[in-house]
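How a chain folds remains the central question behind the approach discussed here. For one protein, we set the task of working out the structure tokens from the amino acid sequence alone. The sequence in question and its structure tokens are set out directly beneath this paragraph.

_____
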Amino acid sequence: MISVIMPFHNEETHIARAIQSCLDISAITELILIDDGSTDRSVEVLSNFHDHRLLLLHHQDGLQKGRSASRNLGILRATQPWIAFCDADDYYLPNRFAHLTWAENIQGYYDDIISESSGERMTNQDVTGIPTDLLPEQVADYLISHQENRISLLGLVVRREALLQQELFDTTLLTGEDTDLIWRLALRTTLQHGNSTSPVAIRGVDGSNVYLNEVRHIADKYAFYQKWYALLPELVLSSKGKQRITDAYLYYYVEHRMHRFPLWMRRLFRRILNVMS
């Protein structure tokens, strides 16, 4: 019933946990692993698993093509009607899919997940999700209008047919590609909260996370909002949703163009533009 897409690049430390969490769930009938040019022992770790549900894919010539291209390859090779995602440093909890009703009129379900970041002395856990009482037609505007609320790709399961209609992940976006796809799905399909009573998966955040590189983070955010700002004329959104995109685009335009300028000057331009991060 469900194909899980798991891209990986040099994840020998975590990948066994991620795989086992998927294989422990009977609703998962296919686990597609995409090696994104790994140079460590990640592929060797897979030899410890003997399960007919596993399928290992590689990019041509063993190249590293990024998360979007890797996930797209997995989706195109998937054979099941429903698609879910689990990165190699994340893992599912036993209740991942047990509560879902698989209604014919719903093209995707989303549930809360836990984002877990570990430091030298402690581990912090934050729940990622949006309100459970939103109607499918309210989801897109809520996601776009409310900056701090989002659906995690790890908590999403969607019909393969709906993904194929959305042109899959945008390979031109280095980060934010998951948000970009989820926004498109929310605007054009019916997404519904799965109504789980507790989070369904754990997302790991470690020191190698790309968002810790500020300059790259700002450049990627600018690319994301530049795309959505250009789409504004054709989007059916509330004035709050459109303003959010406009404000974010202006903010990251300034940050991207002026990150080498003194902080006081950047703050002055932000105040003039009246935008928020």
